[in-house]
Amino acid sequence: MSAKINIRHMEGVTVLEVSGRIVLGEGGIVFRDSFQDVLKAGTQKVVVDLGGVTYMDSSGLGELTNAYTSAKARGCDVKLARLTRKLDDLMQITKLATVFDIYSDEVEAVASFSSYQPAVA
């Protein structure tokens, strides 16, 4: 199953609820296109909920990292929520856990923006 993205808004934060596989090919493209659409809309606060992701390969990890870099370049802050154990292990092994703000649930991630100050691009 390829990636599916459900985009919704909570308390001024755009939430991308991702499910399926983020891999080389269609899954990675779906994620990239959805994330770029959110950035084009001028969003400044994004939570990527990865609780429904069943698998992510190195290409998918690259898409996630590229999304983060693109967001930061536009002054947008990105936080991750609900990583599966496998994704959390992957983030620890690659040291990306030191780059991303990671939260155990979506509500906590959204609430973390309450003292949010936009990054200067």
Give a written overview of the molecule.
38% of the residues lie in helices and 31% in strands. By secondary structure, it is of the alpha/beta class. It has a single domain (4-112), classed as Transcription Regulator spoIIAA (2-Layer Sandwich), CATH 3.30.750.24. It has a five-stranded mixed beta sheet with strand order 1-2-3-4-5. Helix 2 (58-73) links the parallel strand 3 (45-56) and strand 4 (77-81). The longest helix has 16 residues, at 58-73. The radius of gyration is 13 Å and the shape is globular. The N and C termini lie far apart (36 Å). The mean pLDDT is 92.
Task: Describe the structure in brief.
Helices cover about 40% and strands about 30% of the residues. The chain has a single domain, classed as STAS domain (Transcription Regulator spoIIAA, 2-Layer Sandwich). With about 120 residues, it is of the alpha/beta class.
Looking at the overall shape, the CATH architecture is 2-Layer Sandwich
Largest β-sheet summary: 5 strands, mixed
- Residue stretches low in confidence (pLDDT < 50, at least 5 long) are none
Overall helicity? 25-40%
Average of pLDDT: 92
Give the CA-based shape.
globular
The run of helices and strands is EEHEHEHEH
Distance between the termini: 36 Å
Instruction: Name the CATH homologous superfamily.
Output: STAS domain
Q: Tell me, what is the CATH class?
A: Alpha Beta
| CATH overall fold name | Transcription Regulator spoIIAA
The total of helices stands at 4
Strand content: 25-35%
Radius of gyration: 13 Å
Name the strands of the widest sheet in spatial order: 1-2-3-4-5
